[in-house]
Specification:
One of its GO terms (molecular function) is calcium ion binding. The protein has 2 domains: 81 residues, Recoverin, domain 1 (Orthogonal Bundle), CATH 1.10.238.10; 86 residues, Orthogonal Bundle (Recoverin, domain 1). The chain contains 10 helices and 6 strands, in the order ββααβααβααβααβαα. A two-stranded antiparallel sheet has the order 1-2. The chain has a two-stranded antiparallel ribbon with strand order 3-4. A two-stranded antiparallel sheet has the order 5-6. A hairpin with a 2-residue loop joins strand 1 and strand 2. It is globular, with a radius of gyration of 20 Å.
Length: 210
């Protein structure tokens, strides 16, 4: 009804939580306004490579999928499954979730999500490779074992719905393990990957998303 007041939602960042408030507006055609307390929005913007407008945009989508403002691992897996309906994405989603959950709290906050996406989507090659290393370093001991590498590769097979037998060994292990001591260090990982054209180009797909 013309002239009828509409109650719309605005987003406010405050300290470590994200608050939702209602705003009354007469404008039926305008999008719900987004308002962030300067210090909180500024903190996320300065700590990541996202602009304030990008943060607002992502938060709207984040709240659509996660009205509570946090993501549990079960919810994260269900979101991943929507993007990869032909495969079993649960194990790979588990690895990504663990990599985003730096505090090992069992949940991902909007801050966690934005920090991770900032590296993947806008980070330098070195930053992206360090993030990838931590994904493969399943037990987070600073080293990638051959089994860890194979476990993540197997999860990728499942993610893509590839029904072929999972690899029991990988030639990539030998390429990455420069001193043949059975484990891959961060330096070995970056040394090899930063010189591999295919790996570099795989990260480039994120460059045009914004």
């Amino acid at each position: 009804m013309a002239g009828e007041e509409k109650v719309k939602t605005i987003v406010c960042f405050h300290e470590d939580s994200i608050l939702i408030e209602d705003l009354e507006t007469d404008d039926e055609d305008s999008c719900p306004p987004t308002r962030c307390l300067p210090d909180r929005l500024e903190t996320i913007s300065q700590a990541t490579k996202f602009t304030k407008d990008e943060i607002r945009y992502v938060y709207r989508a984040f709240k659509t999928e996660c009205p509570s403002g946090i993501i549990s691992e079960a919810t994260f897996k269900s979101i991943y499954a929507k993007f990869f309906p032909l495969g079993d994405s649960s194990q790979y989603a588990h690895y990504v979730f663990t990599n985003l959950d730096k505090g090992h709290t069992g949940i991902i906050t909007f801050r966690d999500f934005m920090f991770g996406m900032s590296v993947v989507m806008k980070g330098s090659l070195q930053e992206r490779l360090r993030w990838a290393f931590s994904l493969y370093d399943i037990n987070h001991d600073g080293l990638i074992t051959r089994q860890e590498l194979l476990d993540v590769i197997s999860a990728i097979y499942s993610l893509l719905g590839d029904s072929r037998d999972r690899p029991k060994k990988s030639t990539l292990v030998h390429k990455l393990d420069l001193n043949n001591d059975g484990v891959i260090t961060i330096d070995e990982f970056i040394h090899y990957c930063s010189r591999d054209v295919n790996i570099i180009s795989s990260f480039a797909v994120f460059d045009d998303l914004w």
